[in-house]
Amino acid sequence: MTKKNRTVSIAAACLLILVLAGCVKERPADETGAVREEISREEQQAPSEPAEPSPRVLASLNLTDQGRRHVDAGEADRAIRVLEQAISLNPNNGQNYYYLSEAWLIKGFAAEARQFNGLAESHLTGDKDWEKLVTRQAERITRLEEKIKKSR
Fold first, then answer.
1. 29-83 confidence digits (pLDDT tens)
2. What is the DSSP string of 67-102?
3. Which residues form the domain of 143?
4. What is the CATH number of the domain that holds 125?
5. Are the CB atoms for 109 and 147 separated by under 8 Å?
6. Which pLDDT tens digit goes with each residue over 123-143?
7. In sequence order, which residues have a C-beta less than 8 Å from that of residue 66 and are 6 or more positions away?
């Protein structure tokens, strides 16, 4: 890859990250740092080369944002389809699991929401803002489980 192409690729990746970070509705304070950390974990390159996010990571981040927008719009089935694609491209992004749990909550499926909440918790540990969101989500899942038990 030429130096000019590498520079353009890095600039495009940074722009995409900035756009995605600005689109998050309930965004923890340091989400852009989490995105950078996620990319650097995914893209383990030699120290002499600048880290460039792979097309898979960039595509996954784009799908994560699409899935979040579907969740925000109450479109649970669409969100689930998109977020499952995002996970297949990058299974280490805990935000995908968080939003999948949200989609299952919208549908009223507590067991599925609990499963993805647990995965979100394991992937987002260490990020205080996301930990708070995951904890609040777990509390909402518990309330849904109690409601389901009462209705039986």
1. 444 445 555 555 555 554 556 678 899 999 999 999 999 999 999 999 999 999 9
2. HHHHHHTT-HHHHHHHHHHHHHH-TT-HHHHHHHHH
3. 3-151
4. 1.25.40.10
5. no
6. 999 999 999 999 999 999 999
7. 82
Task: Give residue for tokens 């499952």.
Answer: 84
**Is 89 within 8 Å of 56 (Cβ atoms)?**
yes
Q: Which residues contact 55 (CB under 8 A, 6 or more apart)?
A: none
DSSP string, 6-71: HHHHHHHHHHHHHHHHHH-TT--TTHHHHHHHHHHHH----TTSPP---HHHHHHHHHHHHHHHHH
Total count of domains within the chain: 1
How many angstroms separate the CA atoms of 129 and 82, rounded?
Answer: 24
Condensed to tens digits (0 to 9), the pLDDT of residues 94-106 reads 999 999 999 999 9
- Supply φ then ψ for residue 3, to 5 degrees: -60, -40
What is the rounded CA–CA span in Å between residue 60 and residue 6? 20
Q: What is the pTM of this model?
A: 0.67
Residues comprising the chain, all counted:
152
Cα 119 to Cα 93: distance, rounded to the nearest angstrom: 10
